[in-house]
Specification:
With 396 residues, the chain is an alpha+beta fold. The chain has 7 helices and 18 strands. α4 packs antiparallel against α7. The chain is elongated. Bound molecules: zinc ion (ZN) (2 copies).
Length: 396
């Protein structure tokens, strides 16, 4: 063997050994790489499935500019002390008001045939008892020229600072306080954000009790929810009174006033007014609220699987006259934002009848836990709510 042959042999051996080593390494590397990919895929899938469904669901979020581009407000103004019945008779939106049912005549037979259910009927009647006419006497000087973020005129801007009688609708809610601890109609001691209902003191904070040596340790906070374009701010709240139980034209007059402004969200067109009382009206209204909450829970449980049928109802005071029920369907439920892991903030459009005077009325969706207040009428004949809570899990 020549030296050249020897070198050639050694070289071939080295190449064979190298390629054998390389082949093993390559296959090992490939196995290792595949293993890494597999692990990464599993981790990724685990991560995806560990995210709750409501967080994965990302529907279209509304642009603020589309919020109020077409809604025409539905407050009923009263010019020169004109009788409200004249507005009712001369109505151009719903002549004859055939789709409105006077609340004292409302019966099971007015419900669609497959919804003739006593719990639903009771819920509508309980909602009706807590529906009020909202009377406002002044236009706040603080009203803006446009709806936020739009060039859409804001209602009553032109008359700001002036006296002007107008009517809307609203819904009453009540919280009971005992020794400074409050609870709602479900008996829950915490609000939607998990904060406890708590008074500043152990006794009633009303003016009378603050001046008394024996203040009451039980009191009620009466809340009325309506639209911000009905009651805009503290200036208007001071000039607001509620007419309760106005079921028929000859119903006795029950008036509540002395409200303070609570939350007023102009973009969402939703506001609340509050009144503290230790009077018997607090106890009476709280019982009605407990009844409404209980009936709503039953109806949500019974009908949540049929919520896609989109039945809804509104109880309001069209033209500032006596209370009427209207039934219809909601058409679109558009998400405005996520609120928490139980609720989205959405805006509804619906076929359910409303007239001037219906602004601020609660819009109730059958089989859904929601809280929306009527905002206006759209040009195509549909009506629209302000932004409100809608349970994304369809649970109370
Ligand atoms: Zn009308
Ligand atoms: Zn008091």
């Amino acid at each position: 063997m020549t030296e050249q042959d020897f070198i050639h042999k050694r070289f071939s051996l080295a190449v064979r050994q190298f390629s054998k080593f390389f082949k093993i390494s390559l296959s090992k590397m490939f196995v290792h790489f595949f293993h890494l990919i597999k692990r990464f895929a599993f981790k990724f899938l685990n991560l995806i499935f560990s995210i709750p469904k409501y967080m994965r669901y990302q529907p279209k979020v509304m642009d603020w500019n589309t919020l109020h581009v077409y809604g025409e407000h539905e407050c009923q103004s009263s010019e020169g002390g004109k009788d409200l019945h004249q507005y009712l008779i001369g109505c151009e939106k719903n002549p004859g008001h055939t789709q409105f049912i006077p609340v004292h005549l409302f019966s099971l037979h007015h419900l669609p045939e497959d919804y003739r259910d006593i719990d639903l009927y009771d819920m509508i009647m309980a909602e009706a008892q807590l529906t009020v006419r909202v009377d406002v006497k002044i236009i706040s000087p603080n009203r803006p020229q446009f709806w936020p973020g739009t060039e859409q005129p804001y209602p009553f801007f032109k008359g700001r600072g002036k006296k002007k009688k107008r009517f809307g609708s609203g819904e009453i809610d009540v919280y009971k306080y005992v020794n400074g601890h409050g609870y709602d109609g479900h008996g829950s001691r915490h609000d939607i954000d998990g904060n406890p209902y708590k008074g500043d003191d152990h006794s009633c904070p009303c003016k009378q009790c603050r001046e008394s040596k024996t203040p009451s340790d039980v009191w009620w906070v009466i809340i009325v929810r309506t639209a911000t374009h009905v009651v805009f701010d503290a200036v208007e709240a001071r000039q607001t009174s509620l007419r309760l139980f106005h079921d028929k034209e000859d119903s006795p007059t029950t008036i509540l006033n002395g409200f303070q402004i609570g939350n007023a969200n102009v973009s969402h067109d939703k506001c609340s007014l509050s009144l503290v009382t230790w009077d018997v009206i607090g106890a009476k209204l709280f019982k009605m609220v407990e009844c409404l909450y209980a009936k709503t829970s039953r109806v949500v449980l019974k009908y949540r699987k049929r919520s896609s049928e989109k039945l809804n109802f509104i109880v309001s005071h069209p033209h500032g006259c006596s209370k009427q029920v209207s039934l219809g369907r909601w058409v679109v439920n558009e998400k405005v934002s996520s609120y928490n892991n139980r609720y989205d903030t959405t805006r509804l459009t619906y076929t359910t009848c409303t007239c001037p005077g219906s602004s601020g009325a609660s819009v109730q969706c059958v089989g859904v836990a929601n809280s929306h207040y009527h905002s206006g009428a759209l040009s195509g004949g549909r009506n629209v709510s302000g932004a409100g809570f809608y349970s994304c899990k369809n649970l109370l």
